[in-house]
Structure formats: structure tokens, C-alpha cells
Amino acid sequence: xxxxxxxxxxxxxxxxxxxxxxxxxxxxxxxxxxxxxxxxxxxxxxxxxxxxxxxxxxxxxxxxxxxxxxxxxxxxxxxxxxxxxxxxxxxxxxxxxxxxxxxxxxxxxxxxxxxxxxxxxxxxxxxxxxxxxxxxxxxxxxxxxxxxxxxxxxxxxxxxxxxxxxxxxxxx
Length: 172
Description:
By secondary structure, this protein is mostly helical. It is built from 5 helices and no strands. Helix 1 (5-34) packs antiparallel against helix 2 (38-64) and helix 4 (115-145) packs antiparallel against helix 5.
């Protein structure tokens, strides 16, 4: 079955949102670099790379189904946050928004009876549970250390250990 117009349109829009996510997290990495919080900057760079790979997963899926790829404009992200807590709170809010979009895509795939798209999206449904859980864990730690310089130093050092994301293939 050929990929439908509604799926192509919505998957192209999600690809744009994933690229924006990458751009947003790279902006946050720059914010943390300016604060000399190299661990947080590293975590955000890895997050940016993961989001770029997510965008490419949509790209590959659309292309493999014979759909027309369309790269949409990417909005300029903010570059300043009030605090590390504020940046990670925005990260959670952003991931919750992505979850809503992914869930909407699942609904569209079911509506369109596109089982391949539905199967493809299950990766992202699971991924969003993991994304939100990770950020909630980070937020809990930031709130725990509050204004403790030593606590923030240890927290920052912990985030520096995040490994490079594994490449995502279209066969997953």
C-alpha cells in the first residue's frame, strides 16, 4: 500500500519538529557551555544528536514508502534560560509536547489504516516514555541539590557521562 497524503504531510511536519528539537537542545548546550556546565552541555549535545537521528528516521521512512520529502522551516530556538532548572523544565515541557504529537500521529495512522506507519511509530511511543522519564529524573536531582554548588558540580559531572546515542536504523 502506498503511503497516503495525510501521513506524508504529518510525517514531514514531525520531521521538522524533530529537527527543531535538535536545534533547541543544541541552543541549550550553548547556554550550559556559557555557564561552564560542561556535563549539562554534553548531555544536551547528545540529546540534540538523538533528536537529529529521530528526524532522519522519519526522513528514511517517508523515502522508503515513496513519499515526497519536504523540509519545513525550522524556528529559531531561545538561547537564554533563568537557570539550569528552568532549562530542564522547558526540556520536559518540550518532550511532553512531542509526546502529544507522536500520539496524534498514531491516531492518524490508525485512522488512515496505515499499519506500516503505525508499526513505525511504536518506536517513538516507547522513546517518549523514556525521554520524559530521563528528564523527570534530572529535574528531581536538580531540585534535590537546590543551591548547593557542590551538589551542582556532582550533578554536572554525572551528566557528562551520557554516551553518544546509537545510530537508529529504519529496520528497528
